[in-house]
Design goal:
The chain has 161 residues and is α+β, with helices and mostly antiparallel strands. It contains six helices and five strands, in the order αααββαααβββ.
Amino acid sequence: MSTNILLPWQQEAVILQSQRILSSFQYWTKHPLLEVSGSPTQIAQALFEAPFPVFSHGTEADPIYNYANRKALELWELDWEQLLQMPSRYSAEPVSQEERLRLLKEVTNKGYVSNSQGVRISRTGKRYEISDFTIWNLLDEENQYCGQAARFSQWTQINQS
């Protein structure tokens, strides 16, 4: 595995996506996602190492993840290469898809939604109750919509029966 995959936050595309995630969160919520300063690479590393999951997807018809920090990768049980091929809808159970789509449409219309909760699922089927959840629209350098990002600060694995 290459160093870029082991340390994705060092890639130019990931540095740029990290900046979009942080600046868009600040734009919509009026407060920082993470208190961090330094070079763009240092800021990307801080986001990647944050103690809470952060992830984003693009604007494809079936949006594909284009970013996840270490905590999100651990919870979803993915490596970087798997993440970049996974439609974001796979993180919600089939029974939760309608609610997930409703939330994403609300975010598209309002810019962001906070304090949501729900159940998400890892690649291997582990289920998590998540809360203190925020989803927001991502804006590029020209202030154009370029996807959505999310973070949550509380999660509990649900016991399988």
